[in-house]
Structure formats: C-alpha cells, structure tokens
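Quick one, tokens below. Sequence please?
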C-alpha cells in the first residue's frame, strides 16, 4: 500500500518544479496533464475549467484530440464531467459509456476509453473545474489513486485562483473563480453599503503545498492536533466559553470532532500523499465545505459547520496565526464577512470604517443582528457559503433592503447602487432637518418619539435623532455581549452613563429579559421544549431573585438624585408584578438604611406582551405607573406564531384586526386610568405601524434610532382625527381577521402622508 503512495509524492514534487518554471500558462497546463497521465499510468488526462457562463471548457489534455482544447465546452450539468462539477465529488467508473450521464463529444475522440476518474477542482468548497483521467481498459481506480488525483487537483485550484488562466480565455468566458455573483440572504438590518471584503476569520493563505519531508509534516500535523485538543480542554475547563460568542455546547462538539478517528485519519492520509500539513488540512476542509453546501438536513449541516470551524482552528494552530488580525488593519468601507459571529466580536471593529456585515448564519433574531442594528450598519444573514465565494479585498455591495449581496459587481451595477446610496443620503438629510421640529400632527396632537436602546453605542442616537428619551432600554444586551456576568459596579456605571447622556429626558430601563432566545453564553443552558414559553425574563427573576435584586440595586444607585423608571418583561399575572415591585421596595429600604442617596422618584411599570394581561388590565393599571406594549411578543403569543421562525412569523400581520383590537383595548384602558402607555415593539418603528398606533390612541412610541426620522415625517402630515375614524371603522368589520395594511397605505397616499 505504501509503495503505491510513492507515486503521488513523486508527482507532487514534479508538479512543484513545473509550477516554478517560467513558461506560459498554457504550456504549464500542458506539462501538468502529461505528468499526471504518466504518473497515474493513464492514457488520458484532461483539465476542464468552470467559466463565468457556468459552462466547462477543456483547457488542456493529454490523450484526447488536441484540437478539442478550448473548443469543447459543456454545460455544467452535462456528461460525466458535469456530474463531477455539480456534485463536487469524485466519479470513478470502470465503464463510463454505460453510465446514464455519459455524453459523447466526437471532437475529443474519447469513445475508445472505458474507465473514467473525475475529481472536482475545489477551493473553499467551490468547484472551479474538473480533473479527469481515463484508460482504455475497464478498470476501477483505487482509493489511493482517487486521493492522489484530488491532491493534484488542489494544486490546479491554486493555479486557477491565482488568475493565471484568465489570459487563455475568450472575453466573457473567463474562469468562474473571479466572476460576479449575486447571493441571497435575509435582511438583519436595513441599509445599503458598498465596500471591500474583510474576512472575520482571515483565510489562511497557504503558499507551500508540497512537502519536502513527509515525516516532518506528519509530526507537525500531530503536534498541531495535540495542541488543538488541549486548547479546547482548557477553554472548557476555565469556563471561558464566551470567546467569539461560542457556547459550551459548540466547544463540546469541537472537542468530540478533535478526537474523531475518521477526521484525523483523513488528515493523515492527505499528508501521506505528499502535501504539507496545512495543505492537507485545507484539502479536508474543502471537502467538508463542499459536503456542507449540499447538505439539507439541518442537524448534519450544523455538524459540518462545526467541523469546518475546527479545521480553521487547526490551520491557525499550524501557521501560528492569531484569532482575528483583520480588526487591526481595517480598510475604509469594510464589509465584514463571517460564518457566524458573537455580538461582542462585532463591537471590536472600528465603527467608523465598518459599512456592513454578511453572515453565513445568523437569523434576524440573532444577537449580532441586534448589535448591527445598534451600530446602524447594513447586515444580511443566512447567505449560503458567503466565505467560499470571496477573498479579502473583493469589491462587494450589500443590499440589506432586499437581502442581496453582490460580489465583484459589474461597473453598471455599482453605478446604479451609488445612485441609490445618494438618494438615501439625501433622504437622511431631510430627516435630520426635522430633528428639532416638535412632533405634532396636522390636527395638533403631540406625539412623543422615544428610542429603543441597550448598549453604550446607542447613546449618541439620542442627540442625533432629537428623540425625547429612551422608551426601552434592554438591559440584557449588555449581559449578552459580556464574557461573564457584569459586576455590580459595571452595571452601575453603564446605567449612570445612560442617564447622563439622556440628561433631563426620561429613560425606561427594562430588567433582564433573558432566557428564550436571549442566551447568555456564560450561563448554563437549560434544555426546554419551548424556550419562548419557558423559564425566562421575570419568571427567572422571581424564582432566583439574587440576579434581579442586584440589578435593581444597581439601577437605584445609578439613579441617585434623579428619576428612575423601571419595567418588567413578560409579566403574565398581576401577582407577578406585585412580587417584582416588592423587590424594588425592599432594595429601596436597604439602600435607605445604608445611607445611599436614593433616586428622586421611582416609577414602576411593566411590559404588556403576554395576552393574559389583556384580561387583567384594570387591576394592573391600578398598580402600575405606566405600561409599555411589546408588540413583538404580544403578536407572537396572540397568534401562537414564533417570531423567529420565518415560516410563520409573516403569516399574521401586526396590522390585522385581532391584533389592532387588542392594542386598542390597552390604549383605552390606559387612558381611562390616566396611566401613560407606550409601544416599544418593532411595529412602532414602521411608518404604517406607527400610523395605526397613533390612530388607536397611542401618544408615545419607542423606536429604533433609524425610524425616528421617517416616523416623524409621517406624523407631521397626519390628521389623527381622520385616521382614528378610519381605523375604528376598519377594525369593527367582521371580515375574518384580515389585515388593514392596504387600506392604511391607500389612506396615506390620498392624504399625502409619506410612508
Ligand atoms: C417586544 O416583545 O415587543 C419587545 C419590545 O421586547 P423584545 O423585542 O426585547 O422581546
Ligand atoms: Mg418582548
């Protein structure tokens, strides 16, 4: 067996010599196919390159008719070569012509060859071409031969990726490796950005593929694996699991793979074929990525992702690169591309240079999406294989209005986006001009526009937008981006900074809303069948009050001498509000006894986001100082439709009759009790949603910073009396619980209200 492996090593050594020769690209390819054919005792060796038009062109051959080179062009799903390309995996046949996919091209003269071995030329999981050997005799190529051909294909992948072959191509038929691409993802934060790719985990550039000394490479691989394993052990032991936003479970999966014999064996095999340790790791990774892209089972896909991550770590181990050197050399207009990212990692980048974020994973509710929103950068998630398609420095356009990512865009596309960005900027200027204008409707109704915030980076938005305060400060965000529980002093200083930057404007702090999808990386995850309906938010706070108590104390201390407004998330029964309020009273007593300076006033309220409160409004309103409607959760629970599940999250509109009726009764009861009611869910941040809410009687809306301008522009043109009459009539219709969105949009149009 070992003897057979001598072949590929000799081949790789000869290939290295050919790669270094000062010859033309065509000559080099011609020499390579001769070498491979000779080494594998094959009568034919051919290289097909995938072109920008998605066809495969014969670039070199030994054995087939030479005239066919650059003439034979096949669709990427045609014939056996197409099969190799589209499946991104080897095809090994002793009788190729008997295979249903076989397609005969007379110009090649390949009818006399029976056996066929084709392997994809892969880079980062992407097919760049196909490498084929053929023999007259009916034979099956051995596993070692398949392996050897795949290794050789790697060298070709680098040659194609280097751009060397572009000179051989007809215009419009260049190798696909640098082609323009349009990838589709989902919008995490709206915006449009043009810039250049920065890989969050820079691709390790391998310059040395071919080993001088195989024993040495084996030893390097072995010690890198050992180091990787002990790193993982140490991370798990120290509980230092928040690094990069990784959770314990993920690290445990990594550890399992790091000890997986199959994986280690594959790496060793690749080294034995004559690759350097890093090239071997890259080969295995490329195969993993190719499989990942074709895997539809979400569980297996996730495991392949883990394996891909682990391989990355191993590469860094081998080459001694640190975690994310990209952050220090950020170009202007940086567009970060990553598989996934913890929220803290995004905050490490220089905001001034950051334009957009593209993630392979990351749904709209992911934590990093929340940070992207706070930073106001365009962000798109769920972009399949984004990393595989780009290189650092590539031009890219992120259209986070449609979820499209354009890689290496054409000049025409770029020009049209530059124009769109200009138009958007002009609109922003118009909004800025409204900054100091009071938000009063056409019929004289004053609307208070507040901000949703949660991090220090949000604070400048108060001044920028001219908002009248913070209507929802999500305190959990600070806990989510931290590596460990923020200490009391850290909490006090954050809350104080928030109050300082708000000045005389009110700030409503919401106590920790963790659990459900809001996971703290350093907290043990409790498996629950339905986490959104589980042990979260105030439920956790009341059952294990130490954390909530320390947070309340921090809030009271931060607000000394000023007004403090606190509210509780996920209250489902009035009794829970009583208990939570009791905790505040007790902390007040404690601080008083210890001679702390107390807040000037403490206002205590609650979120209304669980439908059960709809039937306790009077009792609740007798107790609270204010209410704030969380329309995101209220809609989720009202319709029993998971807000994070795209299959159902858009099934029921916020502007549907049942939702609006629920909102109306909250507003009416609030008014009857003389208690202020705010809406702080996403609905208030959409112009048409805000229109409906104002029509229902809401006078305080808490919005994301970017919505303040558009919502104010809408409100300034609104006649509340007219809108209220319309909405009242529309929601009393007995029509099957449909949405009134279209009617509201039509109303806005006739009234000249900008939406
Ligand atoms: C809501 O549920 O509407 C809300 C504002 O809270 P969150 O989005 O943080 O759950
Ligand atoms: Mg909520």
């Amino acid at each position: 067996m070992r003897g057979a492996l001598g072949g590929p090593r000799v081949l790789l050594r000869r290939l290295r010599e050919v790669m270094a020769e000062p010859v033309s690209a065509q000559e080099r390819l011609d020499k390579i196919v001769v070498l491979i054919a000779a080494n594998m005792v094959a009568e034919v060796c051919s290289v097909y390159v995938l072109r920008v038009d998605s066809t495969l062109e014969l670039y070199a051959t030994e054995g087939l008719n030479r005239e066919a080179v650059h003439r034979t062009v096949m669709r990427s799903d045609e014939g056996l070569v197409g099969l190799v390309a589209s499946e991104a995996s080897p095809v090994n046949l002793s009788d190729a012509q008997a295979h249903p996919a076989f397609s005969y091209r007379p110009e090649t003269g390949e009818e006399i060859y029976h056996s066929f071995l084709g392997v994809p030329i892969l880079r980062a999981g992407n097919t760049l071409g196909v490498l084929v050997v053929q023999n007259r005799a009916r034979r099956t190529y051995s596993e070692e031969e398949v392996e050897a051909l795949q290794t050789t294909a790697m060298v070709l992948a680098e040659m194609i990726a280097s751009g060397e072959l572009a000179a051989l191509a007809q215009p419009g038929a260049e190798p696909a490796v640098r082609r323009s691409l349009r990838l589709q993802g989902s919008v995490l934060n709206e915006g449009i950005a043009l810039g250049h790719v920065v890989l969050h985990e820079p691709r390790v550039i391998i310059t040395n593929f071919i080993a001088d000394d195989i024993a040495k490479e084996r030893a390097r691989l072995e010690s890198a694996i050992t180091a990787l394993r002990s790193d993982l052990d140490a991370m798990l032991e120290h509980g230092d699991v928040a690094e990069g936003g990784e959770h314990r479970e993920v690290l445990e999966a990594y550890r399992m793979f790091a000890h997986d014999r199959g994986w280690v064996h594959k790496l060793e095999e690749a080294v034995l074929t004559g690759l350097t340790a890093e090239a071997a790791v890259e080969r295995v990774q490329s195969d993993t990525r190719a499989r990942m892209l074709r895997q539809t089972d979400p569980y297996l896909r996730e495991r392949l992702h883990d394996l891909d991550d682990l391989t990355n770590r191993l590469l860094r181990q081998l080459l001694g690169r640190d975690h994310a050197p990209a952050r220090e050399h950020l170009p202007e207009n940086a567009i970060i591309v990553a598989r996934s990212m913890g929220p803290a990692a995004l905050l490490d980048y220089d905001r001034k240079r950051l334009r957009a974020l593209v993630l392979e994973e990351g749904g709209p509710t992911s934590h990093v999406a929340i940070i992207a929103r706070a930073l106001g950068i365009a962000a798109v998630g769920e972009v399949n294989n984004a990393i595989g398609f780009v290189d650092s420095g590539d031009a890219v356009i992120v259209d986070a209005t449609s979820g499209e990512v354009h890689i290496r865009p054409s000049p025409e596309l770029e020009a049209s986006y530059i124009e769109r960005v200009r138009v958007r900027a002009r609109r922003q200027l118009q909004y800025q001009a409204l900054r100091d204008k009071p938000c009063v409707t056409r019929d004289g109704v004053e609307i208070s526009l507040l901000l949703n915030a949660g991090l220090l980076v949000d604070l400048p938005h108060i001044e920028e937008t001219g908002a009248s305060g913070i209507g929802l400060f999500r305190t959990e965000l600070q806990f989510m981006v931290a590596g460990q529980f923020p200490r009391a002093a850290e909490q006090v200083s954050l809350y104080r900074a928030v109050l300082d930057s708000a000045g005389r404007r009110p700030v409503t702090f919401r106590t920790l809303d963790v659990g459900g999808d809001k996971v703290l990386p350093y907290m043990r995850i409790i498996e629950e069948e339905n986490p959104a309906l589980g042990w979260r938010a105030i439920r956790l706070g009341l059952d294990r009050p130490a954390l909530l108590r320390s947070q309340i104390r921090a809030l009271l201390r931060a607000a000394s001498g000023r007004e403090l407004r606190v509210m509780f998330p996920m209250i489902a029964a009035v009794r829970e509000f009583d208990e939570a309020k009791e905790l505040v009273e007790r902390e007040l007593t404690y601080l008083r006894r210890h001679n702390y300076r107390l807040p000037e006033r403490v206002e205590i309220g609650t979120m209304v986001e669980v439908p059960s409160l709809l039937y306790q409004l009077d009792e609740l309103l007798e107790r609270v100082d204010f209410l704030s409607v969380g329309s995101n959760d209220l809609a989720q629970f009202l319709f029993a439709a998971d807000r994070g599940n795209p299959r159902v999250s858009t099934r029921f509109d916020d502007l549907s009759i049942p939702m609006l009726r629920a909102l109306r009764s909250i507003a009416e009861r609030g008014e009857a009790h003389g208690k202020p009611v705010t809406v702080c869910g996403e609905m208030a941040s959409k112009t048409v949603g805000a229109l409906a809410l104002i029509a229902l009687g809401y006078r305080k809306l808490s919005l994301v910073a970017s919505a303040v301008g558009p919502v104010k522009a809408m409100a300034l043109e609104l006649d509340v009396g007219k809108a209220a009459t319309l909405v009242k009539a529309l929601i009393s219709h007995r029509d099957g619980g449909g949405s009134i969105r279209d009617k509201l949009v039509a109303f806005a149009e006739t009234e000249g209200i900008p939406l």
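The longest strand covers residues 126-135. The domain at 214-319 is CATH 1.10.274.10 (Enzyme I; Chain A, domain 2).
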